[in-house]
Amino acid sequence: MDAVVVMGVAGCGKTSVGQALAGSLGWPFLEGDSFHPAENIAKMSAGIPLQDEDRWGWLDTIAARIAQARSSGESVVVSCSALKRRYRERLAAGGLRVLFVHLSGTRELIHSRMALRTGHYMPTSLLDSQFAALEPLAADEFGITCDIDASPAEIAARVAPLVS
After folding, report:
1. Number of domains observed in the structure of the chain
2. Over the stretch 4-59, which tens digit does the pLDDT of each residue have?
């Protein structure tokens, strides 16, 4: 396994679960948001949803970091929305073996979590656009869906045995 990508809409817990999973696996954690160019962050901060063309370079940068880790003999855990199948295909391009872990929850639950967080550029006003863009994992994709009904540590504990 080259990487585990913890995916889902904004506010679903990608970072918290990703960090917990990376810790339990002993793998490095990469925060996908940190790879967004300034233009993307400015758009989202202004309440403007990203379009496919905004995301391609960001996704390619993350895929390159996964490939770099693989060439160094490492596996990584990455947080990345990966909302659409074509985004997930882009992240796994070039023969990378990537397990996608879709964190799934209701709009109401995720909205309430987003409303509580501070210091993040993603406004709650963009949540509906995230759900509109989301293409849940298909049966033929390499991935699992986890309900966000538990703590990040508990979710990571459910996923870790599937990775090892």
Report:
1. 1
2. 999 999 889 999 999 999 999 999 999 998 999 999 889 888 888 888 999 999 99
Which structural domain, as residue segments, surrounds residue 98?
A: 3-163
Cα–Cα distance measured from residue 52 to residue 69, given in angstroms and rounded to the nearest whole number: 25
Cβ-contact 103, 115 below 8 angstroms: no
Q: Per-residue DSSP letters for 21-80?
A: HHHHHT--EEEGGGGS-HHHHHHHHTTPPP-HHHHHHHHHHHHHHHHHHHHTT--EEEE-
| Residue 112 binned pLDDT confidence (cut-offs 50, 70, 90) | confident
φ/ψ of 117, rounded to 5, equals -85, 150
Residue 14 CB contacts under 8 Å (≥ 6 apart), including other chains? 6, 7, 8, 32, 79, 80, 81, 103
Assign residue 45 the CATH number of its domain. 3.40.50.300
For the whole model, what pTM was predicted? 0.90
First-to-last alpha carbon distance for the chain, in angstroms, is: 9
